[in-house]
Amino acid sequence: MTRNVNERPIHADATEPKSIPRIAIQAFCETPEVAAALEAASQDRRMSRTHVKVLMGGLPAAVEFYGSAPTPNLVVVESKGRSDEILGHLDGLAEVCDPGTKVLVIGHVNDVLLYRELIRRGVSEYVVAPLDLFDVLRTIGDLYHSPDSAVLGRSIAFIGAKGGCGSSTVAHNVAWSIAKTFDNDVLIADLDLAWGTAGLDFNQDPTQGALDALLSPERIDEVFLDRLLTKCSDHLSLLAAPALLDRIYDFDELSFDPTIEVARGNVPVVVIDLPHQWTGWVRRQLREADEVVIVASPDLANLRNAKNLADVLRAARPNDAPPRLVFDQVGMPKRPEIKLEEFAKALDLPIAASIPFDAKLFGDAANKGLMIGELDAKHPVAEAFRALSGVVTGRTEIRRAKKSPFAPLLEKLRARKAS
């Protein structure tokens, strides 16, 4: 069926392409022409901040692949099949797609009824081949820049119930685990301006960061923010704190809003490392974050403070999920501890994670500027951080690889490539 002229265009329009945010894109193509257009677009300056992989196999390959792997921010799939075939494969893809993933379908059927059905099922866009480089740029750009598109980034605020309970360490390890496990771009905003430790934890010595953004709010945009970031890995960037005492860091309640808003518009996950303070801007960041994590050690002062925090957040965020409760430094020798279940019951919160006290493990990691997963990927603490990264991003589990008749052959090919 051909499209009615009064319907929304299925082909990409002729508007000027926009720059694409810092996202991960994976494409599964059926024709070399579409694959070539995507490869060419990935080399364009407007996609310089993205991570793009172009594979062959179309929709069936995507369904098979994501049965054992997390989905990126954007999945692009091409299909030469009929409408019923496309819908059938998309049902399979929906079963393995993670929350927050956008899906762009490139088809060869110009059918407005198919377009309507795909949009109804949650597909972000459907376009008809052939496509050139600029069609790809415009289509992807519109997914993230149109007035009705949702904000790209999810903000996760970490705060300690008491100073020294390890909130920053938990925040940094969770951020690293999100980037490593899900191939998602993550930005850590270290907002403890006087005492921030993110630079030390990642073995970085940045010359600019959060303070520069705060002092120049009129300049804050995606380009200026990029200049202030320190790259820690392929998918992890840091907006560092100055960690100097050469000035007083007094800011009003709204001072941090422009920086966090621009970050959320350009990075899929923004981890906000908050200091143990109670100021107007700290309270605001907690109120405005998509997810709040309270980190506490199991003693009386932490219990009192965590209870106060939980009560304030419930009142300030009545329509949001309650904060996550994470225990850190559990089992410290010679320290009397409140039972975790009793602590959590007093707050009326489930336990999201429990991190055991291990002075040598965390000390070695801190001294070497490494995350726990880098130091020992198989350690139970590293696994706890991986599990918590799934919880706070809405991916509650990491799917296990499915058995495939081609598995032995694939293993041999990987071994040969590695050698």
Detailed description of the structure:
With 419 residues, the chain is an alpha/beta fold. Helices cover 41% and strands 17% of the residues. The protein is built from 17 helices and 13 strands. The strands form two sheets. Strands 8-9-7-10-6-11-12-13 form an eight-stranded mixed β-sheet, sandwiched between helices. Helix 1 (32-42) links the parallel strand 1 and strand 2 (51-56). The relative contact order is 0.12.
Any chance you could write out the topology, listing elements then pairs?
Blueprint: E1 24-29, H1 32-42, E2 51-56, H2 58-65, E3 74-79, H3 83-96, E4 102-107, H4 112-120, E5 125-128, H5 133-145, E6 154-160, H6 167-182, E7 186-190, H7 198-201, H8 210-215, H9 222-228, E8 230-233, E9 236-239, H10 257-266, E10 269-273, H11 280-288, E11 291-296, H12 300-316, E12 324-330, H13 340-347, E13 351-356, H14 359-368, H15 372-375, H16 380-392, H17 407-418
Parallel strand pairs: 1-2, 1-3, 3-4, 4-5, 6-10, 6-11, 7-9, 7-10, 11-12, 12-13
Antiparallel strand pairs: 8-9
CATH superfamily of the largest domain: P-loop containing nucleotide triphosphate hydrolases
**Shape summary:** globular
Q: Architecture of the largest domain, CATH level 2?
A: 3-Layer(aba) Sandwich
Physical arrangement of strands within the biggest beta sheet: 8-9-7-10-6-11-12-13
Helix percent reads 40-55%
Mean pLDDT: 88
CATH topology tier name of the largest domain:
Rossmann fold
Unreliable segments of 5+ consecutive residues: 1-13, 397-410
Q: Quickly count the helices.
A: 17
State the distance separating the first and last CA atoms: 52 Å
Q: Rg from C-alpha positions? A: 23 Å
